[in-house]
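User: two proteins, same treatment. go.

Assistant:
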Amino acid sequence: MVFHGGISLKRTLSLKKKKQIAAALAAAVFVCGGCTGNLKEEQDFRLDISDLTDTLKSDIDLLIICNPNNPTSSAISTADMKKLLTVCRSLGIFVMIDETYIEFAPEGTSLSAVSLVPEFDNFMVIRGVSKFFAAPGLRFGYGLTSNQAFLQTLLTHQNPWSLNSIGAYAGERMLKDTDYIQKTWSLIDSERTRMCTELSGLDTVKIYPAYANFVLVKILKEGLTSFDVFEKAIHQNLMIRDCSSFESLNGEYVRFCIMNPEDNDRLLDVFRSL
C-alpha cells in the first residue's frame, strides 16, 4: 500500500489538473514513495484502517491500494474498504484499487470493491489477466468506476492502440471460461490451505494469513537468512522470492507462490529441512 501527494481530484480543481491525472493513469505511471505504510508485522501485516484514516490529509491526492496486497498476501475487507472510501471522499482523495490477485481469494471472503462502485465516485478498481489467467503477454486489463467525468478524461488520454484485436478476443474468452476459473481457483485454494497448515506446524518459520496465490514466510531460525532458504530451494529447482529487497520487511522473509501439489511437496521438504 502506498500513498502519494501532489495531484488532486477535488471537484474544485481545474479541468487541466484533472486531465493531467487522467493522463498519468492512462499511461499506468505511478511514481509513489514506496512503503508499507502502517502495515505491521505484529498485526500480520493487515491494514489498520483507523490508523490509515488518521494519517490521511487533504493534501494527499491519490491513494493506491493493492488488494490482496503484494508481497504480504494480506487483504482488506469490503466493509473496511467502504470506511476508507468514505473518509477519502470527505478529503477529496481519489483511490486506485488494484485487484490483480482478487480471483485467488478464499471462498466466503468479501474483499472486492466492485460492489461499491455505484455508491462512490472517488475510486476506480483495476484488474488484469496476467496473474490468475497466466497471460501477462496479452497486456489486457480493465477498470471500473462510476465517475463518468473522470472516465471520459481517462479515455481521452488513453493510447488508442493499447489493446489489439487478438488480446481483446482472448481476454473475452478467458473471462467467460468458467471451467478454467473454477478448476484454477479450487487448486490454489486447496493447496494454499494445505501448505499453510503444514508450515504452521514448524517452529523454524512463521506464516501469515494469505488471500492471494502466494504466502509470506518469516524465517525464525537464528542465523538462517532468507537468501539461505532461497538457495536451498534453487538446489531443488524451485524458485521462491527472497524478500530482503522489500522495504519495511525487517527480518528474514521469503515468499512463495502456490504450485502444483508435487512441487508444493518438494518445497515443504525444503522448509522441513531448515
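Protein 2:
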Amino acid sequence: MRWDKDYVKEAAGNGTIVAGINIFGHEDAGAVIRAAERAKTPVLLMVNRDAKRELEIEHWGALLGSMAEKSKVPVGVHLDHCSDPENVKRAIHSGFSSVMFDGSKMPFLENVRLTAELTKEAHDNGVLIEGELGSVPYSDLGDTVIKWTSPKEAKVIQEETGLDWLAVSVGNIHRLVGRKVPIHFDVLDSIQKDCSLPLVIHGSSGISDSDIQKLKKERVGKMNLGTSLRKVFGDTLRQEIQNRPDEFDRQRLMKHSVELVEEAAYQLLISLRN
C-alpha cells in the first residue's frame, strides 16, 4: 500500500509520530514493512547518504516502491539528507513519495531559494518535501557544533517555500550510541509559535524515552530512526559469523539479524504510535 496522503501532517500534534527508518537493502526493508504491518501504522523507508553510495537513486525507488505497493499498511519511500538539488529531482521522478532537501549548511537565503524551487517541482509531481534549518551534528564524524533552528527563519522558510515538513535542531545529535542528550523544549516551543509546519526530529538514538513521549505531544510528525537498528543488525550478524564459521550462505547468516531488526522496529513503531 503506497503513501496515499500526508500521514506526517496527520500525526503532528495528534499524539503519534511517523517513523522514518533508514534502509540499506531488501532484507531490512522487508523487516521494517513486516513490523509496520504488525503495528498497523504507516512508515517511511528512507534512503540516506550511505545508501545512496551503494545503489543509484532510481534503483532504490524501483526496489522500495515495489515492496511498498505490496504492503498492508501505508509505506512511503523517502530520500533523506540530500544537499544536491539534482539528486533531489532524480528522486522526485523515480517513485519516491517524499524527499528531503538539506540546505542547512548553505546561507539562509540560498536555502530558501533552492527549497522553493524544489518544493514546486515536488508538488507538481505529487511528492512531499522536507527541509532543514539549523545544524544537527553527526557524532561519528566528530561534529559537535549544534546550531539551533531559528524560529524567525522557520517562519520565513514556511511562508516563502510552501514546503511540507521542517527538520529542526533542538539538541538532537545524529548517530549517538551509549548516551542520551536532552531535547530543549523551550527552543522547540519557540519554533512552534512562529511556524505551523509538521516538525521532524533527526537523531532519535540519542533521545531518551521520556523525551520521545513528550515529543509526541508537540507538533512533531516524523522522527528518523537508523543507528539503533543498524546496531542490532550489525552486532547480531557479527555474532552469527563468529558462532557459525562454516556457514557461507548469506541469507542463513543474516536470518537472525533480520528477525531481531523486525522486532526492534516493531517496538519502536509501537512506542511512537501509542
